Each structure stands twice: as structure tokens, then as C-alpha cells.
Amino acid sequence: MELPETLLNVIDQLSKIPGVGDKTATRQTLVLAKWSAEDLMAFGEAMKNLAHLKSCVDCGMYSETETCEICSNKDRALGGSICVVEQVTDCLAIERSGNYHGLYHILGGVLNPLMGVGPDELKIDDFVKRVKRLEIESVILAVNPSVEGDATCSYLKQVLPDTIEVDRIGFGIPMGGSLEYLDTMTIAKALENKKKM
């Protein structure tokens, strides 16, 4: 049995979302088909408005204006600290923790020469200029632990002025984790990041 073209078009659009296959897209479309006309119009309007979403000119966070809410906050800038992350989702995770109150810089990835991602693609020169312009004293590298992440952190450390304190967030054993179930890399990182008690 062939579904109507209207449903097939929605399934096709939804299946473009990473992690959503044809089966999930079909289920979601059939749920949407049961919504009221008002709810569907509101949903469509919300999707349409995504086309007008901007990226902050300073940090790369999504914003409805040229500068995002965090970069516009003068108190955050006074802290003299920037936390560097790979993706917007990493920034949101740190914000949810409530333990960091400075500025952010979203790279949009990590250095990966094999995939054609170099310093220019990550706009690292713009980041260094921003650090100097804002007279930042401390840079926190919250980049995921991987070969590419480690290389990115090393590169950032090299290109930043020596006067700036550069730290990398700790990695290791999660709260409630058990050593016997952890991989060797996680244990190695935990040992690297040990601290005095």
C-alpha cells in the first residue's frame, strides 16, 4: 500500500535528520497527521522560523540577534575567562551544570586534516583575535578527549599568547562508575588528571 504524497513528503523531510531512519520518520509523520490544524500550523511556523536563526558573531552560539545572550552579558565578560567547546550541545551541557559563568567559544568541530578540517575551517585566528581584544586571562579547553581533540587543544595552546592561562577540563571516571567496567583509555585519563587531597 502506498501512502499519500503529502505523508511521503513529510517522511522524506524528517528522515534527513541525523539518527532518524525511514521507520522513525514514518511513525513521527503518522503521529503528526493526528494533530489538529492549529497545532500543525504552529509546528510549521516554528520550523519556518529556523531559517531566520543566526549564529553569534563572537562565539558561534545560535541567536536571534547578531550577538547571543551570553556574549551580551557584561558580567560574564568581566570574568576574563573563555571556555572553548566543540559544539553547541557541549556549551549547553556546561551551562546546565551551573558551575561556569564566563564566555564561550564554539569551534564547530576539531582539527582533522584527513577530513579537510584545519585551523581556517574552525576560524581559530578569529578566536585568538577575540581573546586578545577582550583581554582574556584564562582559557578553558572543554574539548572531547580524542586524538583529534588532543591535537586541537595542543594547537590552541601554541597559538594563544604565553600570558594566558590555558587549562583543559579533567577526564576520567564518571560519578558512580566502577573501575572494572572502564576502558583502558578512560582509566589512563583518570590517572593523568589525579589531584592531591
From TrEMBL:
Pfam families: RecR_C, RecR_ZnF, Toprim_4. May play a role in DNA repair. It seems to be involved in an RecBC-independent recombinational process of DNA repair. It may act with RecF and RecO. One of its GO terms (biological process) is DNA repair. Keywords: DNA damage, DNA recombination, DNA repair, Metal-binding, Zinc, Zinc-finger. Residues 80-174 form the Toprim domain. GO terms for molecular function: DNA binding; zinc ion binding. It comes from the Bacteria. This is Recombination protein RecR. CDD domains: TOPRIM_recR. Belongs to the RecR family.
